[in-house]
Amino acid sequence: MKVIDHINQAKETLVSFEVLPPLKGKGIGALYKHLDPLMEFKPAYINVTYHRSEHIFRKRADGNFEKVVIRKRPGTEAICASIMNKYNVDTVPHLICGGFSVQDTEDALLTLSYLGIDNVLVLRGDAAKNETSFEPEKGGHKYAIDLLKQVVNLNHGIYLEEELKGTDGTKFCTGIAGYPEKHFEAPNMEADLHYLKAKVDAGAEYIVTQMFFDNKKFFEFQKHCLAAGIHVPIIPGLKPITSKKQLTVIPRTFHVDLPSDLADEILKASSDEVVEQIGTEWLLTQSKELKKAGVPVLHYYTLGKPHVIANVVKEL
Length: 316
Fold this sequence. Notes:
Blueprint lengths: L2 H7 L4 E6 L9 H7 L9 E4 L5 E6 L5 E6 L5 H12 L2 E7 L5 H13 L4 E5 L20 H12 L17 E6 L10 H13 L4 E6 L3 H13 L6 E5 L7 H9 L5 H9 L3 H21 L4 E5 L4 H10 L1
Parallel strand pairs: 1-2, 1-10, 2-5, 5-6, 6-7, 7-8, 8-9, 9-10
Antiparallel strand pairs: 3-4
Helix pairs in contact: 4-5, 10-11
């Protein structure tokens, strides 16, 4: 079932979760253990992230180095299918520009379609770890809007091989990312909203936001989107803070601010166990306010802390 259909048919705020594929060398059992305590809340769908390949230099026996391509978290398509089969829940695989040619993308979309997956979250993705800025794969997309257009074309039965006749179109519901505090590469919020609206006009059906810790910023983002002519559902992305280390890691990695009162409480905490309690209460307060405001879905980035998310959703 499509995400947009879940939203349109719901009578109250839904919940959804986001998970990472296991690291290469790890079995899927750890992922099931991660999801098991969350499934009692009947999520509308589960997002599964995609991770681009990385280039490393490996020393050979002769002392020289060779460039090797590795992917540390493979298997997004198969994991989505496994989750659907085990839990009977819809999945939303992330689709990224980085590391994919347009042919790779078409093949991945066809695999997802054959598996009965109706949704994709279209993202540019991050720069590779050895790059200072994002560089597309040779023959790949540089911007998320171009990736989105490829998905929309395939929905209309337009394949890369133009000579194909009598083609069947796919039926993907496409989501995109939004940034209540502005994408860090955008020169200003106005420009960021311009790019966001272009993706909605190109066929995106809903927006899911980057994590934020101040609901006022989300509500302002909603108003800015409406003023810009963006009328698709906007889903807030939420994450708990569970350690003091995250006070510096989260702003640096995700380019978001932490409210002063939250940061002050965490700095005073005597241990990470206390920080987790503070983070849980903060997330619960955020969730209650957003639910009261009538957001379509509360989307939780679980990222190794399913018990915290479970405690919050249980209180809702």
